[in-house]
Amino acid sequence: MATVQSPQGSRAGLITALVIFVILFVTSLIFAIYFRVEMQKTDENLVNTNKRYAEIISVTDLQNSEVDKLRVAAKDDPAFQGKGLKAINVALAQRDAVARLIAPGDSSQSTGAASTALNNAANTLKGIQPPIVQPTDTLTAAIGNLANAITAREGEISDLKKQVEVAKKSATDAIARAQGQVDSAVKTTEEVRVQAGNTLNDAQSDRTKKQSQIDEIEAARKSERDKSADEITKTTQLVAGKQREVDDLKKQIEKMIAQRASSRQEVSGPIIRAVDGNVVRIAGNGIVYINLGAGDQVSPGLTFQVYDKGEGVPAMGDGISEENMPVGKGSVEVIRVGSTSSECRVLKVTPGTVFSEGDLLVNLVYDKNTRYQFVVHGNFDLNQTGRANPADAEVIKRLITQWGGRLVDQITIDTDFVVLGKEPAVPSFSAEELNDPNKLKIRDDAQAALETYNDLRQKARDLHIPVMNQNRFLYYVGYYDQARR
Predict the structure, then answer these.
(1) Nearest-angstrom CA–CA distance, 439 and 429
(2) Pairing mode, if any, of strands 342-349 and 330-337?
(3) Helices then strands, each counted (H, E), the chain
(4) Comparing C-alpha atoms, which of 404, 400, 445 is closest to residue 419?
(5) Element housing 11 (H / E)
(6) Using the 8-state DSSP alphabet, how is residue 386 labeled?
(7) Per-residue pLDDT reduced to its tens digit, 70-109
(8) What SS3 class is residue 97?
(9) Residues 330, 346: contact at Cβ < 8 Å?
(10) Which of 123, 210, 347, 439 can bridge 331 by disulfide, Cβ–Cβ 3.0-4.6 Å?
(11) Half-sphere exposure of residue 110: CA atoms within 13 angstroms, side-chain side
């Protein structure tokens, strides 16, 4: 028969079960909290560890073949085998070994030392072409290049040594040959010295003989010199006498020239104011007739200056001055020649004047009985442009010869007139400008021309020869207005 529990017993079991459940639950909760905290610490440690190792190497780099090589070296390389080294220790050991090969000291300084060494080597060898070391080279490349260069230089040195040996041998041979030549020369010199001694003795003997001959010749020459001195003295006295005669003759000639010059017409004398003819009829329409015809050597183109019959021909005055020109009433030109008279056209009539019958005609060059001698010098300016030129001088000369005058080159006592062109002007250059050879020559030529001009004028005045400039000459020949056309 089954036992029936009372309600009180059931409650106690339930309470006991509940207490056990609570105890288990609390215990489980405590364990859960504990493991949770431990898991969090493990995660933090893992994160910190990952961060620390990430500064050294990444997960990707751990899978790199180079890292595998370090692991293998730690196990198999005799230098590291059995030491229990990690891959990182192998890498550090290899780094230190490389650093020691580069430079002593801290491995962190090896790279700078290597770079400095490459730069120094490149700067030291920069003059060599092609370049042996460049700053961009690696150490192994630089060392290889230097080794190759040293090998090449050793080859060159070896070749040079061989050349030096050859040169030494050649020099030794040359010295030997030269010594042989010196020995030969010494022998020859000795022979020459002996011959010279013999020759000197012969010469001394010959000199004694020659000196005796020279003394004889010198005595003869002294005698000749004495005779010549006497003859020179006599000749000098004779020359002095002849010179005195020449001087006396010169004085007589100069006196005669001075006397003849003083007897010449003065500038304002009759030769200047001589009348060549007269106006005999005023025909009108610019035509006049004069009393000169074919028998008076008149030709078409001949011009005359017309002067008033009461006032006469003015004196020349200062022939070089432009003042008081002998203008007269005007000028005429012969256009048709008759037997005893000629027809002329009027070239110009001076304002305020009128031609009249009996007015005087003057052309300094023309003379029906005489051929005057003229000296024409310098450059002339017939067109009054301010620029004298040699061509206008030829016009003056042509008129003189055309109208019966004769040209001469030099002033002599027989010269009748001197016609001078424009006085040469000497340019004024600064001292700096005269450093130019062309300007210096221009100045010197102008100075020489002015001196010649002044000398010519003074010589004419000394000989009382009339001197006139271009314009005064043109007025006295009636050609002034014609020249300006």
Answers:
(1) 8
(2) antiparallel
(3) 11, 10
(4) 400
(5) helix 7-54
(6) S
(7) 777 666 677 666 666 676 777 777 777 677 667 666 666 6
(8) helix
(9) yes
(10) 347
(11) 15
Q: What is the pLDDT of residues 400-458, one digit of tens each?
A: 999 999 999 999 999 999 999 999 999 999 999 999 999 999 999 999 999 999 999 99
Q: How many residues does the chain have?
A: 485
Predicted TM-score (pTM) above 0.85: no
State the number of CA atoms in the 13 A half-sphere of 163 facing the CB. 6
The C-alpha atoms of residue 33 and residue 40 are separated, in whole angstroms, by: 11
- CA dihedral sign of residues 232, 235, 240, 246: negative
**Tokens 């003759």 found at:** 249
The strands making up 417-420's β-sheet, listed across from edge to edge, are 406-407, 373-377, 417-420, 467-469
Note the Cα 105 to chain centre separation in Å. 67
Question: Which tokens in the block code for residue 50?
Answer: 């990952």
Give residue for tokens 């207490």.
19
* 301 vs 402: CA distance, rounded Å: 9
Q: Which is nearest to 382 in space by CA: 476, 473, 457, 272? A: 473
Encode pLDDT of 362-394 as tens digits: 999 999 888 999 999 999 999 888 899 999 999
Pair of tokens at residue 237: 């006295």
- In angstroms, the CA 246 to CA 183 distance is 79
Helix (H, G, I), strand (E, B) or coil at 385: coil
Residue 452 half-sphere exposure toward CB, CA atoms < 13 A: 14
Residue with tokens 């650093």: 99
Helices (H), 103-138: 110-124
Q: Which residues does residue 380 pair with via DSSP β-bridges, in sequence order? A: 389
Q: Is 272 helix (H, G, I), strand (E, B) or coil?
A: helix
Contacts 24+ apart (CB under 8 A), 92-99: none
Cα–Cα distance measured from residue 140 to residue 117, given in angstroms and rounded to the nearest whole number:
13
